[in-house]
Design goal:
The complex is a heterodimer of chains A (147) and B (130). Chain A is an all-alpha fold. Chain A has one domain: c-terminal domain of poly(a) binding protein, CATH 1.10.1900.20. Chain A has 6 helices and no strands. Chain A has helices spanning 4-9, 15-23, 37-76, 81-90, 97-106, 108-131. Chain B is an alpha+beta fold and 130 residues long. Chain B has a domain at 6-86: Glutaredoxin (3-Layer(aba) Sandwich). Chain B contains 2 helices and 4 strands. A 4-stranded mixed beta sheet of chain B has the order 2-1-3-4, covered by helices on one side. The longest helix of chain B is centred in the first third of the chain and has 17 residues, at 21-37. Classes of the chains: A mainly alpha (147), B alpha+beta (130). Chain B: Belongs to the mitochondrion-specific ribosomal protein mL43 family. Chain B: It holds the Pfam family L51_S25_CI-B8. Chain B: One of its GO terms (molecular function) is structural constituent of ribosome.
């Protein structure tokens, strides 16, 4: 049906849809890039490349956001972020920063209890390091090995 | 119990067009088996000339999906129909979060006065001067 002479004589009829495939991703751009195909091709390609690369940056950005939030919340309770996190890890509370940030926003009382736990563990650490005497070991410093 | 989200499947094809050959073969051979295997889906077969062959799927939440079946074999149409039967009618876009809650906060959401002494917010009883 589509022999060589017929192929040579056929015209390109779906140029509109081929152009729309690219322009549909450029509709929210600013300036002539959202209307003119020639400018839109490069912009859409760069936009896709940037979005793939940004997926790796998003993880770093969100972690920094959680850390700032936890720092602000723990300073309200009189603790610095470094002390908070290190003492929580020493008391075998392995919560990640995302969860702690969500708790600090939506469950402030739970966060207050976590801050109190970290503060207590910090005091016990000081006693163990500076006391060096006949005082008993701290309660919250015990390590339980789960199976 | 499982409720199938697909309400009805409309098969529109033309009895004479060349690209509807797969649709016609599907109707002759596999449509009955498909209808028997999915008893809660209603299958409408309507031959209309002068139309591109199309498989119309309507879901319980009202979404209608059109799938072109021009120049497809009968097996491909069966696979397409089973895929549509397993879908729900939600839009096929990127889901932003894999979770959703209507009550995100149980202890009360944080506001700048949560951890401050309550003397700032609470008004004590008005004492009469004695």
């Amino acid at each position: 049906l589509l022999s060589a002479p017929r192929w040579l004589r056929s015209r390109l009829t779906d140029r509109f849809w081929r152009v729309q495939e690219v322009l549909k991703y450029a509709r929210h751009f600013r300036g002539r890039k959202n209307r003119c195909y020639k400018l839109a091709v490069g912009s859409v390609r760069r936009a896709f490349v940037k979005s793939t690369k940004a997926r790796r940056e998003k993880k770093r950005f969100l972690r920094a956001l959680w850390i700032t939030r936890i720092e602000a919340a723990s300073l309200e309770h009189g603790l610095k972020y470094s002390a908070f996190i290190s003492n929580l890890l020493k008391s075998q509370v392995e919560l990640n920063r995302k969860v702690i940030a969500d708790l600090a926003i939506y469950e402030p009382k739970t966060f207050k209890s976590l801050a109190a736990l970290a503060q207590r563990r910090r005091q016990e650490g000081f006693l163990a390091a500076l006391g060096d005497g006949k005082e008993p070991e701290g309660i919250f410093s015990r390590i339980v090995r789960h199976l | 119990r499982y409720v199938r989200q697909l309400q009805r499947l409309q098969l529109l094809f033309s009895p004479t067009a060349a690209d509807a050959r797969g649709a016609r073969q599907f109707v002759e051979e596999a449509a009955l088996d498909f209808a028997r295997q999915h008893p809660d889906v209603v299958l409408y077969v309507s031959p209309r000339s002068g139309r591109a062959p199309v498989l119309l799927a309507e879901y319980l939440n009202g979404t209608v999906r059109e799938e072109l079946i021009a120049s497809k074999t009968s097996e491909e149409i069966v696979q397409l129909a089973t895929k549509l039967a397993g879908q729900s009618g939600l839009d096929i876009i990127r889901i932003r979060k894999p979770f959703h809650t209507d009550n995100p906060s149980i202890q009360g959401q944080w506001h700048p006065l949560t951890n401050k002494p309550s003397a700032l917010t609470v008004q004590g009883p008005h004492l009469q001067p004695q």
